[in-house]
Amino acid sequence: MGRIWTRRRPTGTPVSPPAPALYGRTSTSYRTAMVAPAYFAQPTTTRERLIAAAFRVVARDGLEAASVKVIAAEADITPGLLHYHFPGKAALLEAVLREALANYLEASARRREASPPERQLADYFKTSRASLEAERDFFKVRLAFAAAALTNPSLAEVLRDLNDASARETALTLAAARGETDPTPRDVEIGRLLKAAIDGIMLSWLADPAFPIDAAADDIEKAVRAWIA
Fold first, then answer.
1. Is there a contact between 173 and 120 (Cβ–Cβ < 8 Å)?
2. How many Cα atoms are found within 13 Å in the side-chain-facing hemisphere of 8?
3. Geometric angle at alpha carbon 96, from 65 and 203, rounded to 5°
4. Nearest to 129 by CA among 208, 204, 211, 213
5. Contact 2, 198 (CB under 8 A)
6. Could you give the angle at the alpha carbon of 30 between the alpha carbons of 26 and 35, nearest 5°?
7. Cβ–Cβ under 8 Å, residues 125 and 217
8. 151-160: long-range contacts at Cβ-Cβ below 8 A with a sequence spacing of 24 or more?
9. What is the pTM of this model?
């Protein structure tokens, strides 16, 4: 959830097609190109199938289109079976966000534990750059939730919880870069700032694929290093 940075594209490599709007139906070409994060790509249980289906529907058709009926059809199950696993649409959509966060925190912790202090920031940004395409649709989904949360207090509370957890994970990385395990209040503050910057950058890139995301990535990395110097 804190990952945004793109891989460098060799000269002559075709540019990806424009990213779709955050709301409303998308083109057939984008539906074909949509890439779910790995943790949603191979569901095994019915619950996982429902979470993956909800993700696909929101990413492809928009949040307003994600009805219980549509999600159940996407998962190839009956609406009644969906209600057996989730009390309603809101609980299922919350599960999409929480499942993605849990996978992000797990992957980030593995990276953090495997990297020595002097490599923490370099590995953090390297991993983030490499994950951009795989995470593109997840950011599209999460930003759609963020927009909806502006008028939905219950959803806003969920997003605050998830954002706090993501920012704290970044703070743990900053502490690890000093060879420490406990983040300082300043680490947490930087984690929050970075989270907000990432969301803004991703929104700009999703709305306009010509947005200079490589330059933004470079500037953010330099800023973080300056903040902790």
1. yes
2. 6
3. 70
4. 213
5. yes
6. 120
7. yes
8. 154/90, 155/90, 155/94, 158/94, 158/97, 159/97
9. 0.76
Which tokens hold the place of 118?
């002097």
Alpha helices by DSSP H, listed for the chain, are 28-33, 38-41, 46-61, 68-75, 79-85, 89-114, 120-130, 132-149, 153-176, 185-207, 213-228
Per-residue pLDDT tens, the chain, 229 aa: give them: 444 333 333 334 333 333 333 334 443 333 334 555 666 777 889 999 999 999 999 999 999 999 999 999 999 999 999 999 999 999 999 999 999 889 889 999 999 999 999 999 999 999 888 887 778 888 889 899 999 999 999 899 999 999 999 999 999 999 999 999 999 999 999 999 999 999 999 999 999 999 998 899 899 999 999 988 7
The whole-angstrom separation of Cα 119 and Cα 96 is 31
Burial of 215 (0-12, 13-18, 19+ CB in 10 A): exposed
Collapsed DSSP state (helix, strand, coil) of residue 133: helix
One-letter amino acid at 13 equals: T
What is the total residue count of the chain?
229
Burial tier of 22 (Cβ tally within 10 Å: 0-12, 13-18, 19+): buried
Fill in the amino acid letter for 181. Answer: T
CA dihedral over 41, 81, 106, 131, signed as positive or negative: positive
Class of domain 28-228 as given by CATH: mainly alpha
Tokens of 90: 């809101």
Contact (Cβ atoms closer than 8 angstroms) between residue 71 and residue 89: yes
